[in-house]
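subagent[fold] <- orchestrator: predict structure for attached chain, return tokens only, no commentary.
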Amino acid sequence: MLLTTSASIYAQDLKGDAKKGETLFKTNCSACHALDKQMVGPALGGVVDRLKTEQNLGVDWFQKWIRDNKALRASGDKYANEVFEKFNKVEMTAFPNLTDQDIADLLEYTTNPPKAEPAAAETDVNSPEAIKAAQDEKNNSSALLISLAAVGGLLLWLLFRLTQLVNLHRKSGEISALDATRINSIGEFYEKYNTLGKALMGLLALFALYGIWNWLMWVGVYKGYQPEQPIYFSHKIHAGENKIDCQLCHSSAKYGKVSEIPSVNVCMNCHKGISEYKGKYIEEGKSREFYTAEIKKIYEAAGWDEGSQSYTGKTKPIEWVRIHNMPDFVYFNHAQHVVAGEQTIIKAKKVDVVCKACHGQVQEMDKVQMANNFTMGWCIDCHRTTEVDMTNGYNKEYYQKLHDKLKKQYGGETKMTVDAIGGLECGKCHY
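subagent[fold] -> orchestrator:
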């Protein structure tokens, strides 16, 4: 959105409020503009004086441009058409709802943006309070050292006294008689406790076999697996804070066997116009600058030049680390589960999106991790507990006879679950 003019050249007696203008700018303009750099549209910092000097344009021109730039271009306005051609013929959104005061506020913000509040001053190390605190810390350290020295001295005295007592008993012969009853080697110990030793060895062997068996049962089970990715992607920001639907990025999940990793052009659909992070949510240990730097990695992969707002053709593949990966002997179809499960799984598992039944609360994950075991037992348990939606017209007609049979066999309150319609057949998953 091309905004220009300053309070000094207003034709109207309207004084702009930079604070209000900042709010309006963030709401209406920040997707395409910044004050200090070119994005989809030009940088707007200081643009008022620049266009007044270079084009001799006043407030009336800018009001026409902001409210309906298409009509202004159609009128034959030279500069309006030059701007349109320069920025790749990207048509700016019209804002007919903005009042003269709103525009004055926006223009004031582009000319005199509010200064950031200064950081709190650091504590003066030479202040009386700082000197007193340092002295107190020194006194505490000295007291601690004296206490430790006293405890050390007491322990040394106790050791000396115990040595004296042992030597006294050795002279009396009591220690020598006690030594004669002691076991001095492992062999002597084994001979003395032969039966107990064999029992313990057998018990240890059983524990070892159990440990090996338990380890084998967890081969290929990676619940909690959370690898580092080449570009830090926070699902909490995208799916949680911004409420982006899973299938906007993973579009093949509903119609294909595999839910593919989105290609970089999917990322650029949004990030072509979002070059820096300005959200409120910041993960502990991270910063807005950190998230912005990760966006730049997307640009590098896509070959996007921010300055010219064009692709260079020099692309770089993003080597994502796969998290969920079924073994080769397992058949799993995303489309089958997403389409059929949108009703059944949501009702049975009490989740709002079917994806969460397997992948967990992804919208709360900064770094995605494997949320479940994905063992055969886990899948079977899901099929045994997930109800088929019998209010669905197709299911009600197709499974009615089977449902009546189950009710007759197990009682009138019997629910139709996935295992009853073939969910436990080996050939469904193994072929």
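orchestrator: received. Logging for downstream: The chain has 19 helices and two strands. Strands lie at 304-305, 310-311.
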